[in-house]
Design goal:
There is one protein chain. This protein has helices spanning about 20-30, 60-65, 125-130, 170-175, 215-220, 230-235, and strands at about 10-15, 35-40, 45-55, 70-75, 80, 90, 105-110, 120, 125, 140-155, 155-165, 180-190, 190-195, 215, 225, 240, 255, 260-270, 275-280. With about 280 residues, it is mainly β. It folds into three domains: about 10-65 and about 190-215, Pseudouridine synthase, CATH 3.30.2350; about 70-190, Pseudouridine synthase (2-Layer Sandwich), CATH 3.30.2350.10; about 220-280, Archaeosine Trna-guanine Transglycosylase, Chain: A, domain 4. Strands 1, 2, 3, 4, 7, 10, 11, 12, 13 and 14 form a ten-stranded mixed beta sheet that branches. The longest helix is centred in the first third of the chain and has 12 residues, at about 20-30.
């Protein structure tokens, strides 16, 4: 078990193939005995970085979910899959390009695959797809910052992809034509790297505590406003706090005192300066 006082934060997990994200979260819950959640799933066939949120960090899932992601993917050309991955029905097409097509980048419109966790009428799309139901998911805007070809050998090619949250990499690979995603590994989520993952996080018999990245460090990707005294007490009680002219602030910010984060708040400009309105209170 993790000791009392360090049960709020993020565990970096290197998920192996063959287990679900839910399985990984349950394993960390078993190690810590704390409330747990995650900040974005990985398909069972995929490996790599999973952020498991522990304790009060579970209140902050939305901020971690929105971070950009980096993946390494292996595409198999000359075949297509009903699920765009190796777990679907594979059909050979025989059309293998002499070199990988130019991958798309920038702002793109993408329709989530039918075999996805997106909800349709309150039910997961993959459940409807497994029953053979016909439906179409709405397109969404994604951003592909990088889509680099790393290598190409025969019918396989390796890619590194940096993209916005909500991007389906297996759909990007399928979109190259006559291809599906044979392997997928997530290497980064925002500032977090799979290289820093706790190697024993999923091992129930591992010696020593789970490595929990505390809230102070885990929220380092957000701007921070330091307060004290009455302002700190007000923020801890969920009240907006006025911090003078801070017009340069944008997006959610961490309100903190000497003891660490108090709340994640949204800046608002007013006649008397900047008001930090709490979105999530972390004290109490």
């Amino acid at each position: 078990m993790v000791g009392v006082g360090v049960l709020d934060g993020v565990v970096l997990v290197d998920k192996p193939a063959g287990i679900s994200s839910h399985d990984a979260v349950a394993a960390v819950r078993g190690r810590t005995g704390a409330r747990t959640g995650h900040a974005g799933t990985l398909d069972p066939f995929a490996t790599g970085l999973l952020l498991v949120l522990v304790g009060r960090a579970t209140r902050l899932a939305r901020f971690f979910v929105e971070l950009p992601k980096t993946y390494r993917a292996v595409a198999r050309f000359g075949a297509v899959s009903s699920t765009h991955d190796p777990e679907g029905e594979i059909r050979l097409t025989g059309r293998v390009p002499s070199s990988p097509p130019a991958p798309p980048t920038g702002r793109l419109r993408q329709r989530p695959p039918e075999f996805s966790a997106v909800k349709v009428g309150g039910e997961r799309a993959y459940r409807r797809a497994r029953r053979g139901e016909r439906f179409e998911l709405a397109e969404r805007e994604i951003v592909v910052h990088r889509f680099d070809v790393l290598w190409h050998r025969g019918e396989h090619a390796g890619f590194e992809i940096e993209c916005s949250s909500g991007t389906y990499v297996r759909s990007l690979i399928a979109g190259l034509g006559d291809a599906y995603c044979a392997e997928l590994r997530r290497t980064r989520i925002g500032p977090f790297s799979v290289e820093d993952a706790d190697p024993g996080a999923l091992e129930q018999r591992a010696e020593g505590p789970v490595q929990v990245l505390g809230l102070d460090r885990a929220l380092g990707f957000l701007e921070r406003v330091h307060v004290g005294g009455a302002l700190a007490r007000a923020a801890g009680h969920g009240r907006p706090v006025a911090v003078g002219d801070r017009s340069g602030l944008s997006g959610p910010v961490v309100v903190a005192d000497d003891a660490g984060p108090i709340a994640v708040s949204e800046p608002e400009s007013g006649p008397e300066g900047t008001l930090l309105r709490p979105l999530v209170v972390l004290r109490g």
